[in-house]
Amino acid sequence: MSYLELKNVDKYYGDVHAIKGVNLTINKGEFIVFVGPSGCGKSTLLRMIAGLEEINDGDLVLDGNEITHQAPSKRDLAMVFQSYALYPHMTVEENMSFALRIKGEEQSIIDQKVAKAADTLNLTPYLKRTPKELSGGQRQRVAIGRAIVRSPKVFLFDEPLSNLDAALRGQTRVEIAELHRDLNATSIYVTHDQVEAMTLADRVVVLQGGVIEQVGTPMELYEAPANKFVAQFIGQPQMNLLSASYFSGISADAVDVGVRPEHFSIVDAGQGAISGQVELIEALGNETLIHVCLEGSGEKLIVRQYEQPSIKVRDSVSINYDASHLHQFDAKGEAIR
Ligand code: ADP
Questions:
Q1: Do 134 and 282 fall into the same domain?
Q2: Do 311 and 206 belong together in one domain?
Q3: Same domain, 84 and 196
Q4: Which atom of ligand 1 lies nearest, measured to the CA of 190?
């Protein structure tokens, strides 16, 4: 059932058309991730939902009520910011209870809600500390706790992990996933990191230049990208894109063909459809990435393999592709189904 709906929403900053007629329906309990390169409009879209940016055109509907021009405080949404935005002079407990105290909530209910959120987020031992006495990960959990106690209709996360180091980012990502599993709260999460998008989302919204390129489950985006942009944005290393002339049995309209690194394989000399020279071998332990420059055209591709390779840099290699996993794109870059 549609819970939060964006209907043809637009945003202009002067002459900049930052969000261009976006339509999106979010269901209750869904974890939605907005992802895209810097400047694609993901933060603007989140802030429009929060009420922190004006919506210039279109409608926003939450739980059956039109809230397009409603004040942020009336929207029943809670935002978790990248900068945490905690009050430095207040303890964890005071930070978490602030919104409820402002609302004039009864003290016993405040205590109960803060205790429950602190327990969920493993913050109980730190309730009397101030933010400066906490690690970055703990501060981020306080910021999330402050949102939880309000029991909002929707949680909005604005790049909440980007101030954490790589190890802590991975750990906090898992905690956010577990929290969502436990609370089942409708959440919208903005990130430029496709790994966060793929691991957290029920559905991912890929944005570019203020428009939605594709909406789908992580595996839908990985296995059936709608266009070249999504194909290359999702997946690490990127999907290889080669001229259609290397492939047989494909559509006459295909201009580029995409192949994920794991769908190429190195085969015996002369046995493969494509030949080239090895430029670089990245042994990552669990997998090896073999970078190859193709004969004649100079196009490049990456082969992912899970066995130890017996080849060396500068070797000539023959490469085959898995014909059931080709992604064909037309002259406009749209996928040919
Ligand atoms: P993202 O979060 O994807 O990096 P933003 O939503 O911040 O992108 O920005 C989308 C577009 O709107 C960009 O072109 C950006 O330069 C522009 N923009 C964002 N905020 C403002 C602002 N306050 N004034 C003018 N332009 C802005």
A1: no
A2: no
A3: yes
A4: 2
Angle between helical axes of 136-148 and 107-120 (0-180°, round to 10): 140
Calculate how far, in angstroms, residue 53's C-alpha sits from the geometric centre of ligand 1.
Answer: 11
Ligand 1: residues whose CB is within 6 Å? 13, 16, 18, 36, 38-44
Same domain (yes/no): 210, 300:
no
Q: What is the pLDDT along the chain (337 residues), one digit of tens a residue?
A: 689 999 999 999 999 999 999 999 999 999 999 999 999 999 999 999 999 999 999 999 999 999 999 999 899 999 998 888 899 999 999 999 999 999 999 999 999 999 999 998 899 999 999 999 999 889 999 999 999 999 999 999 999 998 888 888 888 899 899 889 888 899 999 999 999 999 999 999 999 999 999 999 999 999 999 999 999 999 999 999 999 999 999 999 999 999 999 999 999 888 999 999 999 999 999 999 999 999 989 999 999 999 988 899 999 999 999 999 999 999 999 999 8
Question: Which protein residue has the closest C-alpha to ligand 1 atom 10?
Answer: 41
Ligand 1: residue of 9, 40, 44 to mutate (most ligand atoms within 8 A of CB) is 44
Q: Whose CA is nearest to atom 16 of ligand 1?
A: 39
Could you tell me the distance, in angstroms and rounded to a whole number, from the CA of residue 52 to the centre of ligand 1?
13
The kind and range of the H/E element at 157 are strand 154-158
Same domain, 196 and 266: no
Whether residues 221 and 262 share a domain: the answer is no
Distance 85 CA to ligand 1 centre (A): 20
CATH number of the domain that 150 lies in? 3.40.50.300
Same domain? 272 vs 197: no
Tell me whether residue 99 is in a domain: yes
CA atoms within 13 A on the CB side of 120: 23
Domain extent for 267:
239-247+254-329
For residue 16, report the distance from its CA to the centre of ligand 1, in Å. Answer: 9
Q: From ligand 1's centre to the CA of 271, what distance in Å?
A: 50
Backbone angles phi, psi at 40, to 5 degrees: -75, -15
**pTM score, two decimals?**
0.93
Q: Residue 98 and residue 89: Cα distance in Å, rounded?
A: 12
User: In whole angstroms, what is the distance from residue 80 CA to residue 93 CA?
Assistant: 17
Compute the distance between CA of residue 335 and CA of residue 328 in angstroms, rounded to an integer.
Answer: 6
Q: Are residue 276 and residue 175 in the same domain, yes or no?
A: no
Q: Which two tokens stand for residue 263?
A: 């769908």
Any domain includes 335: no
Counted domains in the chain: 2
